[in-house]
Amino acid sequence: MKKVAAIYPGSFDPPTNGHLDLIERGSLIFDELTVAILRNAAKEPLFSIAERRNMLEELTKPFKNVHVDTFEGLTVDFACKVKAKAILRGIRAISDYEYELQMALMNRKLHPELETVFMMPHQKYSYLSSRLVREVARLGGDIKDLVPEIVEQRLREKLEPAVKLQSARKTKSGK
Ligand code: PNS
Predict the structure, then answer these.
(1) From the CA of 163, how far away is ligand 1's center (Å)?
(2) Which are the contacts of 48, defined by CB distance < 8 A and separation ≥ 6?
(3) Cα of 151 to ligand 1 centre, how many Å?
(4) Ligand 1 atom 3: the closest Cα is on which residue?
(5) N or C: which end of the chain has fewer CB within 10 A?
(6) Residues recognised as catalytic
(7) What spacing in Å lies between the alpha carbon of 139 and ligand 1's midpoint?
(8) Is the predicted pLDDT of residue 59 greater than 80, yes or no?
């Protein structure tokens, strides 16, 4: 029987419970799923590529048909390189749709044989994004239910000195 491979591209800075939910769903419908972390020189990420790769490898260990890789350049070129037939993307709310539709149609224009497959993460993650997780963590908020434990730990290790500095400044200034 023909096997269907897919890629799940993204920034994953950091991976959230929403990403993990989608990876699990993707692993159930595709024979092989490659989580593809974009190496984007234009962005200044919180976590390095190596750190994100390491977290994702740890988190996807239970899924035997899921691999983690990194890429730069066009997503469609990476998909062809790993012989994927589909690009998996998550849609949380209507607000995601326009951007995702644009990307999917551009990718189709670039490579018509590749299909984009949209899946919805569990509704409890519909408000969740890496950007908000970074912001809440930076400001000392609770991110326990938003990211897997190892991500929470890595965020704490990375941000704790800054958060401590911030609260020390607040105490000093009496605010
Ligand atoms: O997690 P993100 O940041 O929403 O992921 C966006 C991503 C990586 C899927 C998108 O920026 C992308 O595909 N970048 C690679 C460059 C590319 O192929 N651009 C044309 C897409 S239409």
Answers:
(1) 31
(2) none
(3) 22
(4) 11
(5) N
(6) 19, 43, 92, 130
(7) 28
(8) yes
- Report the amino acid identity of residue 127: Y
Q: For the chain, where are the alpha helices, taking DSSP H only?
A: 17-29, 49-59, 75-81, 94-110, 130-138, 149-173
Q: Whose CA is nearest to atom 10 of ligand 1?
A: 10
Is the pTM above the cut of 0.90? yes
Statement: residue 112 has pLDDT above 80: yes
Task: Report the C-alpha gap between 72 and 39 in whole angstroms.
Answer: 5
- The whole-angstrom separation of Cα 100 and Cα 15 is 19
Round to whole Å and give the CA distance between 72 and 119.
Answer: 24
pLDDT digits 0-9 by tens, 68-111? 999 999 999 999 999 999 999 999 999 899 999 999 999 999 99
pLDDT at 14 over 60: yes
> What angle (nearest 5°) sits at the alpha carbon of residue 50, between those of residues 47 and 54?
95
For residue 156, give every residue at least 6 positions away whose Cβ sits within 8 Å of its Cβ, in sequence order, or none: 137
Q: Which atom of ligand 1 is nearest to the CA of 38?
A: 8
